[in-house]
Amino acid sequence: VIPKHANVANALGAIVGNVSAISEIQVRPDYHPAGLKGYFVMGACQSYHVELPDALREAKKAASAQAQEEAIRRGAVGEIMVNTTTDESSSEGICLEIKVTARAVGGFAF
Asked: For residue range 86-98, what is the model confidence (pLDDT) as tens digits?
């Protein structure tokens, strides 16, 4: 059974639709017996940083670029908005991992 206004609803969905993509990068601390040595940035890019702000900056840059590239590959056009978030996992006050997530959203070409 097809609803009476199915064609209008489908067209409306196409008009307001968008394309999105998500990319995640992990930042993991490098602990040694002498203490914290630095941070690994792990994902499509691999790098190592002594300072956390540098590692987070690199992770956000890589996650944003990957999400934007994937959104374009999926058909996004025009202005693509990218938003990044960070989520830290810790145990007993010790950082285990920081997950950087980027979400890119753009319009869809008809």
From this structure: 999 999 989 999 9
For 20, other C-beta atoms within 10 Å of its C-beta total 15
Tokens of 109: 């070409």
End-to-end CA distance of the chain: 27
**DSSP secondary structure of 43-95:** SSSEEEESSHHHHHHHHHHHHHHHHHHHHHHTTEEEEEEEEEEEEEEEETTEE
Output the six-digit token pair for 59: 């992770």
Residues 28-53 have pLDDT tens digits of 999 999 999 999 999 877 899 999 99
What is the model's pTM? Answer: 0.80
In Å, what is the CA distance from 27 to each residue of 23, 37, 47, 106, 109?
13, 13, 10, 27, 35
